[in-house]
Amino acid sequence: MGMKPVWRKVVVCASSALLACAGSVTDSPDGDLPPEDESRASTMEQNAPDASLEVAPVLVLNDGRQVQAVPPFAPPATSFQPGFHQALRASHSAGSVTTFRMRVPVARDGGRIRVTFRSGDGSMTLVRATVAQAGANGALASTPVKLSFDGAEGFTVDARSRKTSDPVDFPVAFRDELAITFEVRGALAASAISAFPGSFARAGNHALVTGALGGTLFDRAVGVATVDVEGPTGRAFVAIGDSITEGYIDTKNDTRNAWPAKVEAALGVPVVNAGVSGQGFYDALALLDGEVLALQGITDCIVLLGTNDLGDKNSLSVIQARMNTMLGRLAPFCRTWVSTLLPKEKSNYAPYELVKTQRLELNTWLRGGGAGPDIIDLETVTRQPANVHLFIDGLEVDGIHPSIEGHQVMADEVARVLREEGGL
């Protein structure tokens, strides 16, 4: 039977609205080693996806460069949105049951939370997990609350799987520090750099210990991929990038010093971090589903990516094509903001003169609207006035990575643009 005329009109209108919102732009080992040099091309061997995902918009439309509710439904007054996130590209093995206590900042107010764990390059069994307010030196500042998973105390998952806890009553305020403690064995997804001081690991079952956990410092992100907080529905950002975004400064880092966290603090909205040290567009596209698109409630994406792709003969056209592929896949998911590439004072692998030329050409293309209208020009605020290839003194640590001061300058510019052009 054919549809009645009234239903034909509804379908046509809904389809037209969705079309109108589309964007216009077509392990690390356990040691704390610095990430790969930013000039080296990505090493992923599989082909980057080139087809757009059929992902329904969750909260936003990109229409007239304004964030709107998805017609015909307004977003709920309260919802789960990310307050913390890490991509966790590397893998860490726990041969016997080990208790980890991760100290993480959470950038949302709300009354309930849920925690998503992620396995590494093999299966993972979580025995028990709790959440509490974090105290000093690995101790808890509140009574631990047990997490459950489909009503059970623990779970087992295959390699590279995400498992989200049942929602639990646990009031949090913006930028609270949580202690997520879990007993686990097997392969855990992990970050490649150390950026979570105040986190610990101890052999055995110790999830209910309220004092200092003991054991050893373990300041890589491990196991805990995402913390969603149920609170007033609002703007929620994810930053997509490489080690500059993840927050690599030295062998010991703090995610709270990375530019996304500083933007978050300035604007009072979550800016969760999906940066992965050493990656380029190839890697980011291949793993976009599990590291970015798996998040729920994101409204905006900030992309600072490409410096690791510079230096090959055809790098410029490849970067441009992959940038537009990424923006096409992100279009149904978020409003995208793209940054120019920072100065680059050296290249350890690719010919430096070629790197310099390609970086300038890419930034010119971005400023000209090649990746859409929403541009954040971080090169302009970090470069020396007399030399576009050099950082302003004090804003870098090695000619490639920003210093803490550099991250602050970047964050100030991102916050300025989002206030003036993003409605914050």
Automatic annotation (TrEMBL):
Q: What is this protein called?
A: Lysophospholipase L1
Q: Which SUPFAM superfamilies match?
A: SGNH hydrolase
Cite the SGNH hydrolase-type esterase domain residue spans from the record.
Answer: 239-409
- Spans through the membrane: none
Please give the InterPro entries that the UniProt record associates with this protein: GDSL_Rv0518-like, SGNH_hydro, SGNH_hydro_sf
Residues covered by region (Disordered): 24-48
What keyword terms does UniProt attach to this protein?
Answer: Signal
- Top-level taxon of origin: Bacteria
According to the UniProt entry, where is the signal peptide?
A: 1-22
